[in-house]
Write a structure and sequence with these properties.
The protein is mainly α and 747 residues long. It has helices at residues 2-28, 33-41, 45-69, 84-94, 96-99, 109-113, 168-176, 189-202, 286-289, 293-299, 362-385, 391-427, 444-448, 487-492, 497-505, 519-522, 536-546, 552-558, 567-574, 577-587, 595-601, 612-627, 641-647, 652-659, 702-714, 717-744, and strands at residues 134-135, 183-188, 233-234, 248-249, 276-277, 461-462, 478-479, 507-509, 664-665, 680-681. It has 3 domains: 1-101 and 205-222 and 252-278, no CATH class; 286-531 and 605-693, Myeloperoxidase, subunit C (Orthogonal Bundle); 702-744.
Length: 747
C-alpha cells in the first residue's frame, strides 16, 4: 500500500497548496481569471470529500502504472498485479468505498412526503440514482485516448480519423469569434438567464481542487505541460489577443468520481474515468436550498420556528431581503468592489446560496435574491393560513412548492422555446406517471455540450433599467465582465430591480452561424487583472475533450440523424457550404468535429433555438428528468388535485411582481416585447391561490399526524415522545454539522 500512502500525501499536499495560494492571492489582490473561476468551480464540503477520495484512488493507480511501465517487455495495467483483497483495501483507505456504499431508504412520512436534500431515495429501488456526488450518465461510451482516463488531444501528434485534433483556441478564433451581435426578436434575456438558472439546479461539474500537478508539484498556471490535473489550452500562432505562444490559458480537469477509472470494475462500473455531478439531478430548487443537509441548514433561519430562509443582516434592497453573506469560505467578491467612503476596505463579500456559482454575475445574483424572497413569502402565507404548523412543515411545504415552480416554468415556458414543437411532441408528450425504470441522471453530453448552447445567446452588455425601463443614469448599463462577482453593485447600485428590468426588456443575442460568441465571453471572461483572461468557447471545447465525449457524427447517429462523411454532406446538414468547408479544413474529417461546436452549427428547428441534434439531446434529457422523478409536481401523490390546479397559475412574471417593487412586466416572461409593447400591470398577472394548502387538522405537522396515528394504534406514547425528542436533537445536530462543514470546507 506504499503507492496509496504516497498518493494520499501528494493529493493532500496539492490541496493544501491550493488553499494557501488562493488565500495569499486574495490578500495581495492578485487573483487571476483562472483563480476567480476556480472559486466557484472547486468542490466544497461533502463534494470536496468525495472528490478527494477519488483523486486518492486515481493518483495511486497512476503511481502503480508508472512503476509497472519500468518493467521490460510487458504491458501491464495497474490492476493486473493487485489481488482482490488489495483492491478492496485501496477502496477502503481512500474513502471511495464509503462514497459508493448502498443506501437504505426508510419507509416513513418524511421520505414519502418530501424530497431528501441529497436526492437519495427518490428512486426507492436504486436510492443513489440522481443523488448528489454521483457520476453523470454516459449515453455513448467515452473515447479516452488510453481507453481509461487520458483526454482527447492529450498526446501530441495522435491521429483521429487520420488527422490531429485542432487546438481549441484556434477553433474559437476561426469559427466562434464575432463582434457583431444580432438581436433575437422573439426571446428576451430572461430566457437566457433562466437557462443558466435551471442548469445550476441540475448539474455542477466541479474542477479538481488542486491548482498544481500531483506528480511534481508544478503550478498549472506556470507551465504548458500536460500533467494531471493540468490540461492547458495552447495558444496558436497569430492569436489576435495573446501574442506570446509560450504561455497557455490555464485549464483544470474535472474532478473524477469514485468507482471509475481503473478500479471501476470493483464497484460494478466501466473501467473509464467518470466525472462527478456535485448537485442532485432533479429539478428541486437545489440552487436555493443546497444539495446536502449541512448546506440546507446553513441557509435556514434557525432563530425562529417559522420555516424561513436566512437573509442578509447588513443590507436590504429598499426594504426587501437579500441573500446572506458567505463568511466561511475564501471570498473573491471584495476584489471586484469599488470602495466607497461608507464601507470598510474589506469590501462586500459574496452571497451565500444553495449553489456555489451564485455570484458569477448580476443576473444570477438577482435570481437568487428573487427566489429567496419567494420562499419566505410562501412560508409566511403558509404559516398565516396554517398557524398550527411547526417550522419544519412550513419550510418543507414551501420548498415543495418552490420545486414545482421551477418545473412548471421550465417545461411550460422555457423548454418549448429551446427545442421546438416537433421535439416537444416526440420527447415530452403529456405527462402520464412516474416511471421508476427511467434513469433521470444528467448525461455527460448534456452538461458538457448540449445545454451549453446558451453561451452563444448571451449579450455582451448587461442592461440596468430604471422604473420607466430606461437606462439607469445613476447606474448605467455595463459590460458583462464588470458584473462578475460584483455583489457590491447589488448592494450599492439599486438592488436587483434594475437588473431584472434589464433582462425582461432586452433581447437575447441571436445565435447565427457567422456570429456565435461575443468577445466579452471569448476574450474577457473573469477578467479582473492584467492576467490573460479566459475564453469560454475554448473552455467548452476543452471540457468536452477532458470528458472524452464522442464526436459530432457519433451523436447524430445516436439521435437517428444522418452522419456527414464529407464536406458536401456536412454542407447539406448545416445548410452552409462555407462553414462546412472551414470546419473540415480545421478538423480534417467531420467525425472529429467537437459535439458542442457541431450542434451550434446546425440551423434552428422550427419554433426552436437549437438544431436537430441539440433538440434531440435536450429533449431526451428533460424527458428523463421528468419521468424519472418520483416527486414530479404532476405525480398524483405529490400534490392534491386542488393544489395542482392552483399551481397552473405559476409564472416568473408573478414571482417578480410578488417579490420586487416592479409593477410592469411581460405577460410571458421569456418573450421579447419591443418598446415594452404588450407589458402589463401586475394586477393583470394571475396569482397562485395558496388557500389550496389550508390544513384543517390541528396537528403541528403532517408527519407528526401520521406518526401520532400509528402511535395511537399501537398505544405507544413512549414512541411518540421519542419521535419528538429525536426531531429536536436531529435538527440541532444538522445545524452543528452545517457549521462545522462550513468551517472545514477549505481544509
Amino acid at each position: 500500500m506504499e503507492c496509496l500512502q504516497e498518493a494520499m500525501q501528494l493529493v493532500d499536499s496539492a490541496y493544501k497548496y491550493t488553499r494557501d495560494i488562493n488565500k495569499q492571492k486574495l490578500l495581495k489582490k492578485s487573483v487571476s481569471p483562472a483563480n476567480l473561476m476556480a472559486f466557484s468551480r472547486q468542490p466544497v464540503a461533502e463534494t470536496r470529500t468525495a472528490s478527494r477520495a477519488a483523486e486518492y484512488m486515481h493518483v495511486a493507480m497512476d503511481l502503480i502504472q508508472q512503476r509497472l511501465l519500468r518493467r521490460p517487455k510487458r504491458s501491464f495495467n495497474a490492476t493486473d498485479l493487485l489481488t482482490q483483497a488489495e483492491l478492496n483495501t485501496v477502496a477502503q483507505i481512500s474513502g471511495c468505498a464509503a462514497q459508493t456504499l448502498p443506501k437504505t431508504c426508510t419507509s416513513d412520512c418524511w421520505t414519502t412526503q418530501y424530497r431528501t436534500f441529497s436526492g437519495e431515495c427518490n428512486n426507492l429501488k436504486n436510492p443513489r440514482l440522481g443523488a448528489v456526488n454521483t457520476p453523470f450518465a454516459r449515453w455513448l461510451p467515452a473515447q479516452y485516448e488510453d481507453n481509461i482516463s487520458m483526454p482527447k488531444g492529450w498526446t501530441p501528434g495522435k491521429l483521429y480519423s487520420g488527422f490531429t485534433l485542432p487546438l481549441v483556441r484556434h477553433i474559437s478564433n476561426m469559427i466562434l469569434n464575432t463582434t457583431v451581435i444580432p438581436a433575437d426578436l422573439q426571446d428576451n434575456h430572461a430566457f437566457v438567464d433562466w437557462g443558466q438558472w435551471i442548469d445550476h439546479d441540475i448539474d455542477f461539474t466541479p474542477q479538481t481542487a488542486s491548482v498544481r500537478t500531483f506528480s511534481d508539484g508544478m503550478d498549472c498556471e506556470a507551465s504548458c505541460a500536460k500533467k494531471s490535473p493540468c490540461f492547458p489550452i495552447q495558444v496558436p500562432p497569430g492569436d489576435p489577443r495573446i501574442n506570446d505562444t509560450n504561455i497557455c490559458i490555464p485549464f483544470y480537469r474535472s474532478s473524477p468520481v469514485c468507482g471509475s477509472g481503473e478500479l471501476g470494475s470493483l464497484f460494478g462500473e466501466p473501467n473509464t474515468r467518470e466525472q462527478i455531478n456535485g448537485l442532485t439531478t432533479f429539478i428541486d430548487a437545489s440552487m436555493v436550498y443546497g444539495s446536502t443537509p449541512s448546506m440546507a441548514l446553513r441557509l435556514r433561519n434557525m432563530s425562529n420556528d417559522l420555516g424561513l430562509l436566512a437573509v442578509n443582516q447588513n443590507y436590504t434592497d429598499d426594504g426587501l431581503a437579500l441573500p446572506p453573506f458567505n463568511y466561511q469560505s475564501t471570498n473573491p467578491c471584495p476584489l471586484n468592489h469599488k470602495i466607497s467612503k461608507n464601507l470598510s476596505s474589506d469590501g462586500i463579500p459574496c452571497f451565500l446560496a444553495g449553489d456555489g456559482r451564485a455570484n458569477e454575475h448580476l443576473a444570477l445574483m438577482s435570481l437568487h435574491a428573487l427566489f429567496l424572497r419567494e420562499h419566505n413569502r410562501l412560508a409566511k402565507v403558509m404559516k398565516l393560513i396554517n398557524p398550527q404548523w411547526d417550522g419544519n412543515t412550513t419550510y418543507h411545504e414551501a420548498r415543495k412548492i418552490m420545486g414545482a415552480i421551477q418545473q412548471i416554468i421550465t417545461y411550460r415556458d422555457y423548454v418549448p422555446r429551446v427545442i421546438g414543437t416537433e421535439a416537444m411532441q416526440k420527447y415530452l408528450p403529456n405527462y402520464t406517471s412516474y416511471n421508476e425504470s427511467v434513469d433521470p441522471r444528467i448525461s455527460n453530453v448534456f452538461a458538457t455540450a448540449a445545454f451549453r448552447f446558451g453561451h452563444v445567446t448571451i449579450q455582451p452588455i448587461m442592461q440596468r433599467l430604471n422604473d420607466d425601463y430606461k437606462e439607469n443614469i445613476q447606474y448605467p448599463n455595463i459590460l458583462l465582465h464588470f458584473s462578475h462577482f460584483a455583489t457590491w453593485r447589488i448592494i450599492l447600485e439599486g438592488g436587483i430591480g434594475p437588473v431584472i428590468r434589464g433582462f425582461l426588456a432586452s433581447s437575447a443575442k441571436l445565435q447565427t452561424q457567422d456570429h456565435m460568441m461575443n468577445t466579452e465571453l471569448r476574450d474577457k471572461l473573469f477578467q479582473v487583472t492584467s492576467a490573460v483572461a479566459l475564453d469560454l468557447a475554448s473552455l467548452n471545447l476543452q471540457r468536452g475533450r477532458d470528458h472524452a465525449l464522442p464526436g459530432y457524427n457519433d451523436w447524430r447517429e445516436f439521435c437517428n440523424l444522418s452522419r456527414a462523411h464529407n464536406v458536401s454532406e456536412l454542407a447539406a446538414i448545416i445548410n452552409n457550404t462555407d462553414l462546412a468547408q472551414r470546419l473540415v479544413s480545421l478538423y480534417g474529417s467531420p467525425d472529429n468535429i467537437d459535439v458542442w461546436l457541431g450542434g451550434l452549427s446546425e440551423p434552428f428547428v422550427e419554433n426552436g433555438r437549437v438544431g436537430p441534434l441539440f433538440a434531440c439531446l435536450i429533449g431526451l434529457q428533460f424527458a428523463k428528468l421528468r419521468d424519472g422523478d418520483r416527486f414530479w409536481w404532476q405525480n398524483e401523490s405529490v400534490f392534491t388535485p386542488e393544489q395542482r390546479e392552483a399551481l397552473k397559475n405559476v409564472s416568473l412574471s408573478r414571482i417578480i411582481c410578488d417579490n420586487t417593487h416592479i409593477q410592469l412586466v411581460p405577460p410571458e416572461a421569456f418573450t421579447f416585447y419591443p418598446n415594452l409593447e404588450g407589458f402589463v400591470n401586475c394586477s393583470k398577472i394571475p396569482e397562485v391561490n395558496l388557500s389550496a394548502w389550508k390544513d384543517y387538522n390541528s396537528d403541528p405537522s403532517i408527519c407528526f399526524r401520521n406518526f401520532k396515528a400509528r402511535a395511537e394504534i399501537t398505544s405507544s406514547a413512549v414512541a411518540l415522545s421519542n419521535y419528538l425528542t429525536t426531531t429536536v436533537i436531529h435538527s440541532w445536530f444538522l445545524y452543528l454539522a452545517a457549521t462545522l462543514s462550513g468551517t472545514l470546507a477549505f481544509t
